[in-house]
Design goal:
two-stranded antiparallel sheet; about 190 residues; about 40% helix; 6 helices; alpha+beta
């Protein structure tokens, strides 16, 4: 950005003053400050686009609301409400981790993540059979966008803080989960 500054001199009018009034006029050097693309928060953009891609895909391929919530951990009764809720949850997570310094964000990886999720074909089988493949697929193509940076054995607050995709945050420390760590009660929709 650059600005051109002109000094304008004009005699003061009225009251008989001989002093000159000097004003400053700043002209924008051709930069359009109304360009919304220049003002997009990269976290909001990432969360919105990925949530829309995930929810559109899942609602296109699976028409069972409970399966969508329990197998795929996506909220909402429609693709639109799913995307809104998932984007809000994502944004809270990435902003929280960014504020705590436990987020490595790679904005250049967002497009690849969204393209891969959007172009994945539906699998013609029971959702429970391919839910594991879905989570691995998302981890492989989207996991590098908003990755945690806390190493195994270091302090954490949330699972998403952990760098290793197989680690969980247990007792305030990132560590690789074992079967007994995962045995936690959950509701019919899969939430804790």
């Amino acid at each position: 950005y650059f600005f051109l500054v002109f000094t304008l001199s004009a005699p003061a009018v009225g009251c008989g003053s001989d002093e000159q009034d000097t004003g400053v006029l700043a002209l924008d050097g051709g930069v359009n400050n109304n360009d919304s693309s220049a003002q997009i928060n990269p976290f909001e953009d990432y969360c919105r686009r990925v949530a829309e891609a995930k929810c559109n895909y899942i609602f296109q391929c699976v028409n069972n609301g409970i399966a969508i919530q329990s197998y795929f951990a996506l909220p909402g009764a429609t693709a639109e409400s799913c995307a809104q809720q998932a984007a809000a949850t994502c944004l809270r997570d990435v902003e929280d981790r960014s504020n705590r310094g436990t987020l490595d964000f790679t904005e250049s990886a967002v497009d690849t993540c969204v393209q891969q999720v959007s172009s994945r074909p539906c699998i013609d089988s029971d959702p429970s059979e391919w839910a594991h493949q879905w989570h691995d697929f998302i981890a492989n193509f989207c996991g590098g966008v908003a990755r945690g940076n806390v190493q195994t054995g270091e302090p954490c607050v949330a699972r998403s803080d952990c760098f290793n995709k197989h680690d969980i945050c247990l007792s305030g420390q990132c560590r690789t989960a074992v079967a007994s760590d995962l045995l936690q009660p959950c509701t019919a929709t899969g939430s804790l």
